[in-house]
């Protein structure tokens, strides 16, 4: 071979059979566009599936036909009578009383539960004492059992205490919903564990007591978790059906969940189905208001944490 001969290098610009047969998939930009389009189409379909039941309930709450049987999927005639009668026609089902009864229970339970969880989480996160880990393990194991297993036992305990009639039902529901709140401290404790102990030590050096450290340092830093705990504590009694059904025996002590269930019974269905939809819309209003208000505190606390 001549010394002037140069070594032949393979050409990379020649299309191979694979790339020539399907050149589209070798363009990353086009593949990304196709992936984005498919992802958005899937999300749009899922959004429609999720939104349709909500839209149907809202429109059904304005349906002029009070019964459940309609010729079309969406109502064709609309009226506000369902909302009006829901609050004025109280001789059969007193929805305003059920609403206020549930609201009072949920607010009280929310306050008690948040306080219990904060106290237990602070003790488990900041204090060291004997049987601490054993207690946490026992609570973890007990939390694996469904609460419905204890409904019968709880009912007979409340009955022996005389809390299954009259005003005692309200007290019983508050006790049942808030008594075990402290056992749900794991999420709050995990958040408190991320707070540096140096903050506590600096506060102790400045002369703060343990209570002052808890109220002036730990609680302000835990605002995001307070939002989460307040929402879950409020939603528990607001949406619960099983425990309320076991304890509340008369309409005077019904919660909104029991009231909505009663509206779908055979004797009320033909006249109360549209009002059932109206009640479903109404009971979502406090949840939406609470979420909007608490979300503002959550955003403020997170922005403050970033600035700090």
TrEMBL record:
InterPro entries: BP-dep_ABC_trans_perm, MetI-like, MetI-like_sf
Cellular component terms per the entry's GO annotation: plasma membrane
Topology in the lipid bilayer: Multi-pass membrane protein
GO MF term (any one): ABC-type maltose transporter activity
ABC transmembrane type-1 domain ranges (all copies): 99-294
Main subcellular location of this protein, as a coarse class: membrane
UniProt-annotated location(s): Cell membrane
Biased composition (Polar residues): 1-10
Protein name: Maltose/maltodextrin ABC transporter
Provenance organism: Bifidobacterium reuteri DSM 23975
